[in-house]
Amino acid sequence: MLNEATLQYVLQHAHDDIRMLALRGCKDAQVNLPLALQQIQGRQTARHKLPSWAAIDGIVYPPHLNMEQCSSELTACYKRGIADRILSLGVAQIVNRKSSNSKFLDVTGGFGVDFAFMADAFDEAVYVERDPDLCALAAHNLAHLGKKNVSTICADAVSYLSSISSDNFALIYLDPARRDMHGARTYALADCTPDVTTMMDDLLRHSHYVLLKLSPMLDWRKAIADLSPHHVQEVHIVAVDNECKELLLLLARQDTNSQHFQSSIFNLQFSTAPCLFCTDIHSRNGFHTEYCPSSQSLLIEEIIQPSTRPKDVCVTRTLNSQLSILNFLYEPNVAVMKAGCFRELAADFNVRQLAPNSHLFTSATQVTGFPGRSFRITAITTMNKRDLRTRLGHLQRANISVRNFPLTAEELRRRLKLADGGDDYIFATTLSNGDHVVILCTKLSS
User: Which residue among 157, 293, 308, 339 is least crowded, i.e. fewest CB within 10 A of its CB?
Assistant: First the structure.
């Protein structure tokens, strides 16, 4: 897809600033400069986002918007794990009555990152993309990556589904485009392309499993209610390095002929809530922290029409009493925060919230395995100037966070006259009795 002169230009300037290259221009008429700059920028992005692809010469990268929207290698591997788990349960043989081969379909192929990683779990994989340029690019890259079990089709998702026989795939994957015709971001399911809210019957007719990648900005309860609540079996909130990246919903068809599915895979009745997985992937080593609330306390009816849940157990005290309970402090990771399962978190780890809106937890003894950051508390103070000077006056720098507090972190930093960084951590928050407090901590190793 790149002529030799353009390819050599890309390799020669792989680490250069594309803005300077664009200003400098290129005197070689054989070099397609716009395409070369696109490849240089794409490869530079891929070094962080798709390192295994960036290491391969010959991979062709799409425009910047497509690179921005595509999954990272870490999140693509996570979805590959979901596919592996489905197939390990023997479901492929149940749902694929016409063939012993397991088949995978991606009807919103895009750049093809998720497809390329997930396809390896199946005997056959079909990539569908309505943009002919992206489709041609994906076909080139998949061949370059040595994928032998794949086929690429340029078609619209809805029209392709209407053209094939039903019950043909073990898994169908969709990543609806979250931009309108003017390029503005959209988050509501009905505003994405394709509109999955109108496609569920078709999707579940063609496969027992459907995996949807949605915007992390969406509320997962609202997303379930907008789709087919009794079909959603798993909700995955996926973060990378404590930054929320994806909301994944795994849906399954209620098939009376598939007793294995109902009784063995999720061990859930269809009237209960989906399994919720809060995952934070650590990029430096590829490991991940996963929290799945042990108490599936929300029924489907509560998701559709939220009821008043019992208040979370909180620390309700003045600063002058029961300070011994505040030996350790815990901050949930962003995936848990997005899930909002604070009551379940408190029960699972035997910790207490400082206040319903603080989302900070405390315990008398150290808790291991908490999904987030853990700290040892060294001092607690009110916002009284004398108290602050007495307990924090020795500090020159600290890492400051605020939760449910009237000042921003920067405003508090200026008031305390502290530089950023160091080994000390300050959390400013409001207790359930209304007291504003500042908590000084040291971080515990994870």
Answer: 308
